[in-house]
Structure formats: structure tokens, C-alpha cells
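subagent[fold] <- orchestrator: predict structure for attached chain, return C-alpha cells only, no commentary.
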Amino acid sequence: MGIYSFDVETIKGEQQSMEQYKGKVLIVVNTASKCGFTPQYSDLQKLYVEYKDQGLEILGFPSNQFAEQEPGTNSDVQSFCQLNYGVTFPLFDKTDVRDETAHPLFSYLTEEAPFAGFNTSEPSGKMLNAFLEEKLPHYLEGNSVKWNFTKFLIDREGNVIKRFESTDEPLAMKAEIEALL
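subagent[fold] -> orchestrator:
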């Protein structure tokens, strides 16, 4: 089983095979519109504009699993992303990304790229880790997605190369992206 064996639903409700992205470098990211990390949409869009002609695709999967920070409909999400951040990369149906209801794609991604912890030398990593330890300690167990804007980098052959946590800024991924393009 590889990343191309999964089917996903677009934000407009159409079924789509991940096979459509064969030969592309991918960033798969779970997103939310009302999160402290929501401004990452801006840098994800910058990466998309800079590298899409070289074969980068960014696939955004809105999720309402983290403090209900994505409460709107798919249409609301799409409008928010376009109006506030100029997002032109593909967005998908609101998706569960952790626990028993996780979409199989995210179960696969987290198996292939296990959780290695937050960078607690950075303020945002220290803060998110402390928040989860205090409020949702079970979220820190296992390899599941821990919060919004967890990013998975995938090479042109569909191999999961690296996992970037919510606290990792998208532009910090440039060297790894360029190495795969």
C-alpha cells in the first residue's frame, strides 16, 4: 500500500484518487480556519506559487478535530481560504485526521512518519507541548496528528519523506522541498 492507493474527496464533494498526484512532490497538511497556526496558509500559498511549476502540489485537508477550530461548511472553508489568504492549492472535504475516525490516508501518513516530538527550544513548540500535556495528554501518545497544520512531505514516488509539526513554519521546509524537485 502506498499513498497513491487512497481516494479522497475534494472540497466540492468529488471523489478523487491520490494517484492523480503521481510524479509530484506533495505536502499534505491538515488545516483549520480558527487556529493560532492559521496564518500558515499564507506561507503554504507562497511555497505553492514558487514551486508548483516545478512539480509541487499542496493538498489541504480541513479538520474540525482540534478544539473545533474548523466549524464551517466546505464552502465556508473555501471562501475563507481564498478571501483571507489567496489560497489556490487544492482543498479537500473536512476530514478526521486522528483517532479511530481518521481518514485512512492520515493513518498511513502517521505510520510512515511517526511523531518525533515538538521542537521545545522554540516558543511555539514549548507552548503547544505544554498545552497538550495539561489539557489533552492523550494527544501526545502514539504517532497520530497532534494539532492543526501538521505537514507531511512526500517525494515524486509517493514516499513519505518527513513530517513537520504544527509549530514548524512552512518556509522552513524549502531546503527539503528543493531537494525533491
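orchestrator: received. Logging for downstream: The chain has five helices and six strands. The chain has a mean pLDDT of 96.
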